[in-house]
Amino acid sequence: MKQPLLDMRDIVKSFSGVRALNGVSITLGEGEVLSVCGENGSGKSTLMKVLSGVWPYGSYEGEIYFQGELIQASGIRDTEALGIVIIHQELALVQELSVMDNIFLGNEIGSFARLNDEAMHHRASELLGRVKLNIQPDMLVRELGVGQQQLVEIAKALNKNVKLLILDEPTSSLTSADIRILLDIVSELRDQGIACIYISHKLDEVLALSDWVAVIRDGDHIATKVAAELTQHDIIAMMVGRQLEELFPREDHEIGEVVLRVNNATAIQAGASRPQVDNVSFDLHRGEILGIAGLIGSGRTELMQCLYGCYDGQYQATVELDGQSKQIRTQRSALAAGIAMVPEDRKRHGIVPIMSVGRNITLSVLDNYKTNHFSSVFGGVDEDKEYQDIEEYIARLKVKTASPELAIKHLSGGNQQKAIIAKCLLTHPKILILDEPTRGIDVGAKYEIYKLMYSLVKEGMSIIMVSSELPEVIGISDRVLVMHEGKLKGEFDHQGLTQEIIMNCAIKEGA
Fold first, then answer.
1. What is the SS3 assignment for 176?
2. Residue 495 and residue 99: Cα distance in Å, rounded?
3. For the ABC transporter domain, which residue ranges apply (predicted)?
4. CA gap 178, 40 in Å, rounded
5. pLDDT at position 373, please?
6. Among residues 359, 358, 318, 365, which one has the least CA distance to residue 340?
7. Could you list the residue range(s) of the whole structural domain that residue 63 is in?
8. Residue 78 sits in a domain of what CATH number?
9. Do 142 and 222 fall into the same domain?
10. For residue 238, what are the contacts with CB-CB under 8 A and spacing of at least 6?
11. Is 373 buried (19+), middle (13-18) or exposed (0-12) by CB count in 10 A?
């Protein structure tokens, strides 16, 4: 039997006595693609940190063999020297440096403190050609799109003579065109004998790309199976430990009168060739889930930012809420009007990473906990009431956290998203805007968020959901608006709606 390239045997990793990995074993051969699937918090990232040297030898139990040799890495440099390279979901490129400088950062060509720029430029051009990226090596990274930056990361890995490439959620922020390019390149690398471990919640990508699929649940290795013999439902059942009746648990609910009327919303960014939002008008009904679809750059997020008072350019809109005219120019005024928003980029705009889970949840309603003590000039904080609210909403949204005092950056993406939604719900909004509510989270957490959305609209709340996932838009929404280049191009009831109908509308030109 041929010796595997990678052999991880009975890996156990604990944090403060709690096991994150419970005897996980995986193997992988040269030129093979293994996808590792599991819910957020299942142990996938911990396993990859053990493999890549973030958690050094001696900090875990078990053994890792690479090309038949035991790895005793003290850090990432040791594993990279062996040809194991990890590309994280959060790209690690230096934005103000050139592409070439990023590719060679820490691995420069030269001697005696004199760099050989000509050799590095030639080598960088060669590597960029291998990843089908037609750009100049001296371009600044900040001038590139996210998809192009992802390819620069792969070129950087190839420069380290990679034998095993680990991709952690590589397509979560990419367009469909960029995704196709990336998947094609991974396939080409496989043909060149480079193995890949692929971590993604997008199961269609997993099945299209993988030779093997390994599933981890709550730190346990459930199974590793041949990808060609699996369906998406098979993988989901292994991930969550049960059959999900449907990916989108549509529930009957009553839709009432118009609660929000937006007229002539327009948003303009300085220097842009066209408005990001171009004279858009729409209504929202009580108890309705209104989906907003469209390609990236269509103006979906910008429209929501106008409605929430956080667009950073010039914008205007006539807004009526329950028949009353509202001037919404700031987030505070939006909250006061009864509008709350879960932003598209939760890490940048949704959480304060170093702050506790609890304090993130109460961040928008701190005034609720003020007390007025005669003995204090400044008053105080009713910590008992605040903690009571924190515990109530952690339980209501099933936020998995060891403690409300834990820094929120340590939570999985799905649990961070639940905490952000909890923060919004504490403001008791009439309208909840969800911009990409399930991006980068697993199917189990998605299912819980969908169930929560239906429970909220049954209580009379109205929801606007922006999503790039067309099955999600169709599966959850009552009505769908489609945008293209800042304009509203179509409005559809969910019944009989297909992805093809939405895409044809999303790409059509003209009025």
1. helix
2. 48
3. 6-243, 260-510
4. 24
5. 53
6. 365
7. 6-240
8. 3.40.50.300
9. yes
10. 37, 215, 217, 222, 223
11. exposed
Q: Measured between alpha carbons, how far is 52 from 157 in angstroms, rounded to an integer?
A: 13
Residue 63, CA distances (Å) to 196, 213, 325 in order:
20, 21, 66
SS3 210: coil
- Walking along the chain (511 residues) 10 residues at a time, the average pLDDT comes out as 86 84 94 89 88 94 95 93 85 86 85 80 90 88 83 86 87 73 87 91 88 92 95 84 69 95 91 86 97 87 93 90 92 94 87 93 89 56 89 91 90 88 95 90 83 95 92 93 93 90 77 48
Question: Does the residue 248 lie in any domain?
Answer: no
Please give the Cα distance from 65 to 175 (Å, whole number).
36
- Return the structure tokens found at 306: 């106008």
Tokens of 182: 């990336």
Dist. CA 359–CA 406, nearest whole Å: 10
pLDDT recorded at residue 18 = 73
Q: Residue 320 domain-assigned? A: yes
Do 152 and 132 meet the contact criterion of CB atoms below 8 Å apart? Answer: no
User: Tokens 């709606």 — which residue?
Assistant: 497
CA distance 41 to 406: 15
Q: What does the DSSP assignment read for 347-409?
A: IIII--TTSBHHHHHTGGGGGGGEE--TT-SS-EE-HHHHHHHHHHHHHHTT---S-TTSBGG
DSSP string, 127-152: HHHHTT--S-TTSBGGGS-HHHHHHH
Residues 413, 402 share a domain: yes
